[in-house]
Amino acid sequence: MATRTLCQVLKRHFASAAAAVRTSAAKVRSHRNAIFSRELARQRALYPRIEKIEVSIQGPGLDGTLLIMNRGMSTPLSCARHLTDYHVANSALALVDGELWPLHQPLTHSCTLSLLTFKDSDPTRVNQAYWRSCSALLGQVLESAFKDDFTVELLSTPEVPVTTGAFCCDVVLDPQLDSWTPSAESLRSLTRGAQQLVQQDLIWEPLEVAPSVALEIFSHSRCKQEEVEQKAAQNPKGTVMLYRCGDHVLLSGGPLVARTGLCSQYEVTAVHILGQGAWGLHRRAQGLSLPLQLQAHHTVWRKLRQRAEKLVEMPRHEEVTPPSPTCTSLP
């Protein structure tokens, strides 16, 4: 009993010390955006002259279409604008020379291009990117859902298949919130936050960077820095992929769809407690969504939601050394 009491006292002491040196969420977002914009400008400056590339379009009714585009400036979306309104409105992702490519990522060489939608004969890759994007959206909502007094640390996003029935976002909240149990109204509030981002139709802006840039962007979060190092080590090119959505900068383990407006029905269904982990009390937020091109009747949606409320189980994150309590800060 005495040991437990001492631990509780030390925990409160470290939490108070961390709060004294914590950087506000607004300053952290500003810091991340500034470095993202700086690196984006640097990469664009690598193409000072307009050089032309040939983009051969592939797809139903498009084979043989050849577009002359600008190297390092034109994106798959730029190509879609030379086709039809349908391709602009419905394209979610691209294939460039057979490689998955974000719709807003500039093309750097002559290539073949296929625009992918949710209604393709095989939408598996688009569906997985959509699920990943829904997780990213949930993380963005969680980061801004609590007062500045509380820390929110987004953990590495679990990569789960669509067949699990729910997308996930793992998170550690401020120790002061360890006893918090989300109510039905709390889940509805998170859902409203996500729906507001959907209505804003924000783009997911991609940026591939060296680990040093990503480490600087996430300098306020030791957890994210660990994730940067892991992702860079797993990538043969040694780089990591960042995205910006509004003022939110995130790491991603794979491509995201073009914009939040491609989401239609979207609901946060549960926040489960996973237990103590390296960074504190780990929780798993879950949700359910369907893209704009696919709709479900409310009775079908209710059944899907019931399934999405159940905990999605997967192997736990690898244990990593947590940051010093006196250096804890918002991500």
Report what the structure shows.
This protein has 331 residues and is α+β, with helices and mostly antiparallel strands. The chain has helices at 2-21, 25-44, 76-81, 85-90, 124-144, 184-200, 211-217, 222-234, 298-308, and strands spanning 52-58, 65-70, 93-96, 99-101, 111-116, 152-154, 167-173, 205-209, 240-245, 248-252, 263-277, 280-291. The longest helix is centred in the middle third of the chain and has 21 residues, at 124-144.
Taken from the alpha-carbon principal axes, the silhouette is globular
Spans with pLDDT under 50 lasting ≥5 residues?
1-20, 317-331
Fraction of residues in helix: 25-40%
* Radius of gyration, CA atoms, in whole angstroms: 21 Å
Largest sheet: 5 strands, mixed
Please list the strands of the largest sheet in the order they lie side by side. Answer: 2-1-5-3-4
Number of strands: 12
**Which oligomeric form is depicted?**
single chain
Features:
5-stranded mixed sheet; globular; 331 residues
Could you write a compact summary of the structure shown?
It is built from nine helices and twelve strands. The protein has 331 residues and is an alpha+beta fold.
